[in-house]
TrEMBL record:
Keywords tagged on the record: Carotenoid biosynthesis, Isoprene biosynthesis, Magnesium, Metal-binding, Transferase
Listed GO CC annotations: cytoplasm
GO terms (BP aspect): carotenoid biosynthetic process
Protein name from the UniProt record: Geranylgeranyl pyrophosphate synthase, chloroplastic
Pathways involved: Isoprenoid biosynthesis; geranylgeranyl diphosphate biosynthesis; geranylgeranyl diphosphate from farnesyl diphosphate and isopentenyl diphosphate: step 1/1; Isoprenoid biosynthesis; farnesyl diphosphate biosynthesis; farnesyl diphosphate from geranyl diphosphate and isopentenyl diphosphate: step 1/1; Isoprenoid biosynthesis; geranyl diphosphate biosynthesis; geranyl diphosphate from dimethylallyl diphosphate and isopentenyl diphosphate: step 1/1
One Pfam family it belongs to: polyprenyl_synt
Matches recorded under PANTHER family: FARNESYL DIPHOSPHATE SYNTHASE (PTHR43281), GERANYLGERANYL PYROPHOSPHATE SYNTHASE 7, CHLOROPLASTIC (PTHR43281:SF33)
Cofactors (names): Mg(2+)
Lineage: Eukaryota, Viridiplantae, Streptophyta, Embryophyta, Tracheophyta
Domain of life, source organism: Eukaryota
Family per record: Belongs to the FPP/GGPP synthase family.
Keyword Amino-acid biosynthesis set for record: no
Length: 355
C-alpha cells in the first residue's frame, strides 16, 4: 500500500473538480458506515451568520425514509411505463430485466430533488430522472460483460448476459442508451425547448469521451499498472462515476428553471457527492460480503484495480470522504434549507450506505 497522507489529496481533488476548499465544520462531521441498516430521518434548521447561512441537520422531522420510498416508487412506476414489452420481445425483456431489478435510484432522486430545490415540480424532472437511470443501467450491463469486469451478480440477481447472453446484453445496453435521449426529448412537458436541448447536451457529454467512457477507458488501462497515482485515480472516478451523478443533478436544475448561479452551485455539489459515492464504493468493496453488497465483493482486488483504500488505506479514505461531505454541504448554503433537506439527506445516505 502506498504510504501517503490525506494532505496532498485534497488540493489535487480541488484542482481537478474546480471546487473551493470549504472551511472545517465539526457539526457536519459524519461517522461513516454506521452499523444501523435503517434510513435516518432529518430536520433542517438555518443558522444565520454575517458571512453566510449554515445548515445544520438533526434527526427529527424530515422523514428521509418516507421521502426516498415515495420518490423511488414514483421513478419505478415511470420506468415500468416507459419501457413496455413489445416486439421484438426479447430485447425489451432484457432491457426491463436490468432496469427494473431494483437499486437505490440515487441518480433519479438527485435529479428530482435538484429540480424541486430551484422551484420546479416533480413531474417536470421525471423524464430526465428516468433517462439518467436508463443510462446508469446501460453502464452496469456493459460493466458486467466478460470483456469488462466479467461479473455474474448484480443487485442480487444474475447479470444480464448470464440470463440473455452476451450479444443481447450488449444490445439491451445500446437500446437503453438510445431510448434515454428519446425519452427526455419526447416525454418532457412544460419546459422551454432551449432548456431541453441544453439538458440533452449535458447528458451526452457526461457519458461520452469527456465523461463516463473516458473514465472507463483510463480505468481499463490502469489495471495491473503498479505506478497509478492519485491524480489518475481522481480522473477515473470524476469521469466514470461522478460525471453521471453530476448530470443527474444538473439536469434537474435545468429542467426546474434554475438560474446559472444555482445550476453551477449544484454542479459543484454533485461533483463532491459523485466522488464521495466512489470512495464509499471502494471501501465497501473491501469491507463487505457479496451477500451484503448484492454484487461480487473484492472484485477490484482480484482485478488488481487501483482504489482509494489501496492507495490511501481505509482510515485516510474515510477522512477524504468526510472532506467531500463538507464540500457538498457547503455548496447548498444559501438555498432554502427546507427545500435543500432532501439533498442534505441524500449526501448522508451516500456516505452511510451499506451496499
Amino acid at each position: 500500500m502506498l504510504n501517503t497522507t490525506l494532505s496532498p489529496l485534497i488540493p489535487l481533488y480541488h484542482t481537478l473538480s474546480s471546487l473551493p476548499i470549504a472551511p472545517k465544520r465539526a457539526r457536519d462531521k459524519l461517522v461513516l458506515f454506521s452499523s444501523s441498516s435503517s434510513l435516518p430521518s432529518f430536520s433542517v434548521s438555518a443558522v444565520s451568520t454575517k458571512e453566510d447561512t449554515a445548515h445544520v441537520i438533526t434527526q427529527d422531522t424530515f422523514d428521509f425514509k418516507a421521502y426516498m420510498l415515495h420518490k423511488a416508487n414514483t421513478v419505478n412506476q415511470a420506468l415500468d411505463a416507459a419501457i413496455a414489452l413489445r416486439d421484438p420481445e426479447k430485447i425489451h425483456q432484457a432491457m426491463r430485466y436490468s432496469l427494473l431489478a431494483g437499486g437505490k435510484r440515487v441518480r433519479p432522486l438527485l435529479c428530482i430533488a435538484a429540480c424541486e430545490l430551484v422551484g420546479g415540480a416533480e413531474e417536470t424532472a421525471i423524464p430526465a430522472a428516468c433517462a439518467v437511470e436508463m443510462i446508469h443501467t446501460m453502464s452496469l450491463i456493459h460493466d458486467d460483460l466478460p470483456c469488462m469486469d466479467n461479473d455474474d451478480l448484480r443487485r442480487g440477481k444474475p447479470t444480464n448476459h448470464k440470463v440473455f447472453g452476451e450479444d443481447v446484453a450488449v444490445l439491451a445496453g445500446d437500446a437503453l442508451l438510445a431510448f434515454a435521449f428519446e425519452h427526455v426529448a419526447v416525454a418532457t412537458k412544460g419546459v422551454a425547448a432551449a432548456r431541453v436541448v441544453r439538458a440533452v447536451g449535458e447528458l451526452a457529454k457526461s457519458i461520452g469521451g469527456e465523461g463516463l467512457v473516458a473514465g472507463q477507458v483510463v480505468d481499463i488501462d490502469s489495471e495491473g499498472v503498479s505506478n497509478v497515482g492519485l491524480e489518475r485515480l481522481e480522473f477515473i472516478h470524476l469521469h466514470k462515476t461522478a460525471a453521471l451523478l453530476e448530470a443527474a443533478v444538473v439536469l434537474g436544475a435545468i429542467m426546474g428553471g434554475g438560474t446559472e448561479e444555482e445550476v453551477e452551485k449544484l454542479r459543484k455539489f454533485a461533483r463532491s457527492i459523485g466522488l464521495l459515492f466512489q470512495v464509499v464504493d471502494d471501501i465497501l468493496d473491501v469491507t463487505k460480503s457479496s451477500e451484503e453488497l448484492g454484487k461480487t465483493a473484492g472484485k477490484d482486488l482480484v482485478a488488481d484495480k487501483v482504489t482509494y483504500p489501496k492507495l490511501l488505506g481505509i482510515h485516510e479514505s474515510k477522512e477524504f470522504a468526510d472532506k467531500l461531505i463538507e464540500d457538498a454541504k457547503e455548496q447548498l448554503a444559501g438555498f432554502d434549507p427546507l427545500k435543500a433537506a432532501p439533498l442534505f439527506a441524500l449526501t448522508n445516505y451516500i456516505a452511510y450506505r451499506q451496499n
